[in-house]
């Protein structure tokens, strides 16, 4: 039987523990498994969105690091549903690229940004639990893939146009079925369950088990973590009871208003075409009084 040890959540670890160089091995392991290459983190970068106040980012944690290839990697963990989340990550990547571009430098110096999003809600429609987004240019007629020429490869030190542009990773934790088929799945299992099975071998997970065990935290950190978990459950409940219900109620009200507006618009068009009152009432379902009000307003 596989042994399991209860660990702190990854978002709390990012906020409190993983900003230290002593713990970079954990992040390096996760990024290496996800990006399928050995990642070395040089430093943690601060920005306007990288604040240590929970209310600034309501239930969301950001971490921005620079790797040895000078790429910027943004890690975001999101619990609450955001219907415009795809646009928000595009904004975040664009802002980071601009923030880290030096003045008077050519466009070739623009830093590549990798956006990694760990989501605990179902974004969009799709059956997978990990999605990757990149930029490619495909011919409309020949359907060939546009490639860099040799001089561009030397200039950018890249092999493909796709590698010049941001990469987006969407990890939909709740869609993972808890069956770890490879080392990346082992990380997803940890992100979902805050546990590591004894037979897991993914890079960084040994460091996770050593440094993120709740029982190994100092007493004050254990209390802070328990408070954090309570706060997380409270905010989730508030979100569900207020925004969640309010959204569905608002959606129903919006549909009703849309139907009424459509009826009114049809009625006005029929009046302008000199249709009789009986026809207008039959087509729109409006009352006699409502139709007469529209007629009087048009006169």
Q: Explain this structure to me?
A:
The protein is of the alpha/beta class and 299 residues long. It folds into two domains: 208 residues, no CATH class; 64 residues, no CATH class. Helices cover 44% and strands 12% of the residues. The chain has a six-stranded mixed sheet with strand order 1-2-3-4-6-5, sandwiched between helices. Helix 2 packs antiparallel against helix 6, helix 7 runs antiparallel to helix 8 and helix 7 crosses helix 9. The protein is extended. About 5% of the residues have low confidence.
Topology:
Elements: H1 10-16, H2 24-35, E1 41-45, E2 60-67, E3 72-78, H3 85-99, E4 113-119, E5 130-133, H4 150-156, E6 167-172, H5 183-193, H6 205-211, H7 219-272, H8 277-284, H9 288-298
Helix pairs in contact: 2-6, 7-8, 7-9
